[in-house]
Amino acid sequence: MSDGAVPDLVERVRTRLATAGGEAGVAELAAAVRAEARGVVGDADVLAAVRTLQREFVGAGPLEPFLRDPAVSDVLVTAPDTVWVDRGAGLERARVTFADEDAVRRLAQRLAAAAGRRLDDASPYVDARLPGSGVRLHAVLPPVAADGTCVSLRVLRPARHDLDALQAGGTVDATGRALLEAVVAARLAFLVVGGTGSGKTTVLSALLARVPAAERIVIVEDAEELRPAHPHVVRLVSRPANVEGAGTVLLRDLVRQALRMRPDRLVVGEVRGAEVCELLAALNTGHDGGAGTVHANSPREVPARLEALAALGGMTPSALRSQMAAAVQAVLHVRRVADGRRVLEAVGVLRRTDGDTVTVVPAWGREDGWAVGRADLGSMLADRGVAAPWSGTLSRAVGAETVPAPAVGPTLGAGPDRAVVAPSPRLHHGVASLRPVSA
Prior knowledge:
By secondary structure, this protein is an alpha/beta fold. Helix content is 33%, strand content 21%. It contains 14 helices and 17 strands. It is elongated, with a radius of gyration of 26 Å. It starts with a helix and ends in a 7-residue tail after the last helix. It holds the Pfam family T2SSE. Residues 59-332 form the Bacterial type II secretion system protein E domain.
């Protein structure tokens, strides 16, 4: 058999499969190879052809092993011989290569078709979710991508960590954990902010797991990521338009639907558009304890970021500031440090200042400790019957008792007589999640 037998066979099978359309599984590939071999190709060549086509047509082709690796969050193809992966410590070059530019293009177009989207010269880029895989696809074809087809795959793994796991992994320390538990127990509305891949969804999921079991959580997401360890969770997921441009279900529409589902806690997985208007309106009309994530590099950028998003929904900056100041109480900032760990960097509170300006005032920082916003946070916790984790006692009127505890830190001016709350069984389950904090 000539050296060109396998490539010729592979090309004939590609043509057959492209003409037939539909999904190409292992069985379909084997049937197509047998039909095109016509009995004149040896068994070894048939097997080689099946393996080559399987890598190309099944799943994500040569990228499939990366998507199955639980440590991988991103797979990026910038050229046939240039593939990068992120396993949590930054991008690293992978040894996988494609035969040529056409192979990368075919993979991108096949994945787009599997997601019900179009990717060709007339529509040279696509942003879609691959069905049943939790993978977000973005691809750009040349000449828009000047150096060749670019493929970006983001693996959206369900966030299942709890606070115990986050503390063990160094994401939060004892003080940070106590703060987070107090925020949840007091039903403060909060936003988790940070950059891409900073761990926003992981932290949010861990906090939702601390919500009392008797409460109903309704989650609205653009992609299925939040999987809190909680017995009563309803998840709504948006839907992009199909290839005909119909069938879109927007996040803001789902927020409206969620309000009719009797939520105790309304959560928007990622606030990225006009749905911020509906979320803030809901938080201002009796839906305490709501939450969401926002892309922002620091807490101080949050007001400006929300103003930009609210403008997409037709809300004026002054109206947004009024809604935001009344609706959101806390901002939790997470970021990815140099060694790849995700950490809770800071906790801030929203404060309305003179001139109708809303700012985020730091209350606690991972490196700097307590800050000026601590008094505001303590006041909000006290108003809701939850003791601040850094001091004092909770009134016995709400059934709390106090026990000795070590001082949280020297910045408090605290001594051995400091105490934290040991909640009575009569208290709400959320308060019962508070525990003594060691130095």
